[in-house]
Amino acid sequence: MKVLIIGDFCYPNYMGGSSKHVFDLITNFPSDEVDFHLITRKRSDGQYSADEREAQKVYDRIKDEGRITEVSTKHIFNPFTYLRHIRKADIVVLQHPVMGLFGGLWGRLYAKPIIYHYHGPLHLEYSMKTGKNGLHYKLLWLMQKVTVLLSNFVLTHSDYMKRVSIKEHKVPTSKCIYLPPYIKRHEIRKNLSYIKNNAKIKLLIPRRLTSRTGVIEFLNSFLTFPDDFRSRFDVFVTGKGELQSQVESLVAKDPDNLHYIGFVSYDDLWALYSKVDSVVVPTLDLEGFGYVILEGFSCGSSAIVSYTCGGGYEFIKHHLGDDYVFDVYSPESVKKALLAVQRNRYQREVFIHIADKYTTENMIKYYLDNILSPLYRNSFINS
Q: For the residues 138-155, what does the mean pLDDT come to?
């Protein structure tokens, strides 16, 4: 089965959950069942690229095998970027609605089955970042709407994002398919010297530093607590983004308890997961799931999430209950969640057991058995 994946962003060229998902697909599809090719953007060094040596080696190896085509921004609109690969493909999988729009148009022209993974509404993410809802906002909505119309099926990682896709882009429920979230446990290979072996409760906020992810709001709530309460915690913030300077300013107000680390490699991130008591996901809106939740679980750390964390909120409420969710704007609500972490900080096996149900292997098997293979069989019969 020849599968063409078209995704504007792929890890480590770009950070983010949707980029990591593309990387997970190309590194885990079984070669005896899926002959894939990826069309993606070239790396743009800056605040959204990942300095991840091991992942870069894997990516470069796949690229050297001729299975990745990188394009510059100016060639995104060139039909020849897509045509040769679409003609050869049995199925086209779209990950983002910019390159995905053009890939979808040509895929329809050649009557290829098309799957679109709806990671989130781009126009609303743009509005949250810029505060604008003018021409650019409308263009992003339109591109995603057309991508939805071109697709046979639309994937989401949560019921929350399914509801968003239906509300914002009128996705028919008959097109919607749930793709389970997943995690691949990473070998712990590092000992982090800056994690002190003390009795303090350790929290990790591993987020891109953007207006949507709520890091600023969580830190502001934390800083309202009295000294004796804050001193129970070490809060570590990782990541890069346009709000980095604001994060650094807030951390500087309480350097004994708040720590900004910057971008960390996956080796370092997984070492952090193994050392902290809980992962904090304070998203303000539009969170399809939040892979960091399962990454933390797989190492034995709990997770506390905001009520506005979308699919992550649904997941945590189902598995851990209301004690582990909070209103990011309410210090009392944040305190309630922090106390839940304190009470259950030694129940690491509970969280590992939950993560064991959501393996990458299970996701790939589900993807093959329930999405790709039926679509391939139907297209073969129809042709």
A: 97
